[in-house]
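Hi V.,

You were right to ask for the full record rather than a summary. Here it is.
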Amino acid sequence: MGQSDHPEMLFNLDDLIQQMII
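Predicted structure:
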């Protein structure tokens, strides 16, 4: 989304947050 240094990390964080919300 801007920092193409650790895009996978961002995706992982999003997944974790979504799972927590669910």
